[in-house]
Amino acid sequence: MCTLRQLERTYSARDTQPYLTPIILYGGMENVSSPAGWNGHAQFQMQVFGVLTGAHTDSTTTGYDIWGASYTTVSSTDYVIINNRALPSHVHAETTGENLFGERYTTISDTYYTYGGMETRSSPAGWYGHETPFTMQVFGVLTGAHTDSTTTGYDIWGASYTTVSSTDYVIINNRALPSHVHAETTGENLFGERYTTISDTYYTYGGMETRSSPAGWYGHETPFHHAGIRSLDWSAH
Fold first, then answer.
1. Which of 79, 144, 208, 237 has the largest CB neighbor count within 10 A?
2. CB atoms < 10 A from the CB of 1, how many?
3. What is the Cα–Cα distance from 101 to 77, expressed in whole angstroms?
4. Secondary structure letter of residue 224 according to DSSP
5. What confidence tens digit (pLDDT) does each residue in 84-101 have?
6. Does residue 94 contact residue 113 with C-beta atoms inside 8 Å?
7. What is the Cα–Cα distance from 177 to 187, expressed in whole angstroms?
C-alpha cells in the first residue's frame, strides 16, 4: 500500500516552478519517485511502507516407507527480492537416509537460481479483450539455474562410494528443467576392488506442443489449439 506521507512544496531561487523536497527514509520505508506528468501530477515522491528487504527459510523433512527405508532432509533457502517479491536464489540441502539392509547415504546439494531484472512480453491481438497486441513488463524472470551435489554411501559389507554431480538447466516457461547432468562416481568394496564411473546425461525438450480441446470447452464454441509449455495460441480454429 502506498502512503503519501509528506508533500512539502518549496521554490528554488532560479525559477518559480514548485517542486517536492526529498523525504528522509528510515527502516521499513522506501522512496518511490514518479515521472513528471505521471497521472497528471508534477514529479513527486512518496513513502512505501512494508517494503520487503529479505527472506529466509529453514526446513526439515523426514520420511519413510513400508520397506523400512527412511530419510531426513534439512534445507535452507535464501531469497532475492525483486519487485517486492521473494524469489529463491540459493537452496542448500543435506539429506541422510538408510534402508532395511543397512545401506546408508548422505547427499549435500546446492542449487542456485538467477533472474533477469525485467522482460517485455507481447500478447496476440484479441487476448483478454484487447483489439491490438500490447506489451507488458514482467519482473523476476528466471534466467538460469545450476545444482552441485555430492553423495556418499556405504553398506554393512564395507562397500562405499562417492558421487559428485553437477546439473545444468534450461529455462522453459519460467521453469528450470534439467538439460545436462555430469556425474563422477568412485567406489570400492571390502576386498579392495575399486571403480570409477563418469557419465553425462542430456535432456532435450520440445519447444511447443499443440493440443486440441473439445468444442465448447471453457466457453469456446469450436476446438482450439494451444502451445504446450512455451506459449498459448488463444485463437479458435
1. 79
2. 5
3. 33
4. B
5. 889 999 999 999 999 998
6. no
7. 29
- Note the pLDDT of residue 215: 59
User: What whole-number distance in Å separates Cα of residue 79 and Cα of residue 104?
Assistant: 32
Among the listed residues 80, 223, 76, 98, the one whose alpha carbon sits nearest the alpha carbon of residue 152? 98
Contact between 112 and 142 under an 8 Å Cβ cutoff? The reply is: no
Cell of 193: 576392488
| pLDDT attached to residue 182 | 98
Distance (Å, rounded) from C-alpha 134 to C-alpha 155? Answer: 61
Cell numbers at 212, concatenated: 486440441
What is the C-alpha radius of gyration for the chain, rounded to an integer number of angstroms? 27
Residue 220 has pLDDT above 60, yes or no: no
Q: Where are the beta strands (DSSP E) in the chain?
A: 2-3, 9-11, 18-20, 29-33, 45-49, 56-64, 70-82, 85-98, 104-122, 135-154, 160-172, 175-188, 194-202, 210-212, 225-227
Whole-angstrom Cα distance, residue 77 to residue 94? Answer: 12
- Read off the C-alpha cell for 209: 506442443
Q: How many CB atoms lie within 10 A of CB 113?
A: 20
Angle at 11 between CA 9 and CA 14, to 5 degrees: 160
For residue 133, is pLDDT > 70? Answer: no
Percentage of the chain beyond pLDDT 90 is 46
Give CA–CA dist 82/114, Å, rounded.
11
Q: Measured between alpha carbons, how far is 67 from 172 in angstroms, rounded to an integer? A: 37
- Residues 132 and 125: beta-carbon distance below 8 Å: yes
